[in-house]
Amino acid sequence: MHISSKIPTWILITGASSGFGEEFARQYAEQGHALVLVARRLDRLQALAETLRQQHGVQVVVEQVDLSDIAAVVALHERLRERGIAIDILINNAGHGLQGPFVDSKLDAALAMVQLDIASLTAVTHVFAQDMRARKHGKILLVASMLAYQGVESFAVYAAAKAYVLRLGEALHRELKREGITVTALCPGLSDTGFSKAAQQKITPMLKLLMMKPAPVVKAGIRALQAGRMSIVPGFANKFLVAFTWATPRWLHQAAMSQAMNG
Questions:
Q1: CATH architecture assignment, domain 10-203+212-235
Q2: Sheet holding 34-39, edge to edge
Q3: How far apart are CA 190 and CA 195, in angstroms?
Q4: 164 is catalytic
Q5: How far apart are CA 28 and CA 96, in angstroms?
Q6: Theoretical Cys-Cys bridge with 12: which of 87, 227, 259, 260, CB 3.0 to 4.6 Å?
Q7: Which is the catalytic residue, given 28, 149, 158, 164?
Q8: Could you tell me the pTM of the whole model?
Q9: Residue 89, helix vs strand vs coil
């Protein structure tokens, strides 16, 4: 696919070693973009990078970073600046979640989720948005969740963290638009990314019906970002559930979501 000189060159993808992050890397590589892949699992990053180089002939830089360490985020930014790599599209995807009763969960696990899903995402967005503002162009995709639209039983911290991501994205969409920067929040529902296993999530019959493959979710996110949309919920069923949330009292849609998520 021919890439116009007006299309941004370098794309940074966090959480690129699996799931949505890996799929973003594959789809952007197919378009011919140069990539910076960031995650903790170096072996998986290197294997993905080599595959993308061979298949698409694109430049791929691998950065092993623990994004929960804010100092490591700042150091990543400095390394890329020293190499002359200007990030034009940021896919802020890294995050994790856990299912279970709030009080029964370990406090360290809950705080680690807040650190990665909120603090680290904020830090990554801040340092690279500053560069984009200086150049008067750039695009940022924040990966939230459909759970951002309501509090969900047994996903209290995760749903609250993703609500932060969605609201941050909505605010920055307007705030940074006048600086030449597009900010879009992607709010996927349950997807076949490996997240469910890592989150120890129970897959109910309803969730099996709603589960999407990563490719169409990522494709929807890329299209929404390119179109300059504020947010996007991929999938007809997920859109219906969000509309149901808007149209019904809290007690009703929260009870319905609790049943769908927890059985």
A1: 3-Layer(aba) Sandwich (3.40)
A2: 60-64, 34-39, 10-14, 87-92, 138-143, 181-186, 231-232
A3: 9
A4: no
A5: 23
A6: 87
A7: 158
A8: 0.89
A9: strand
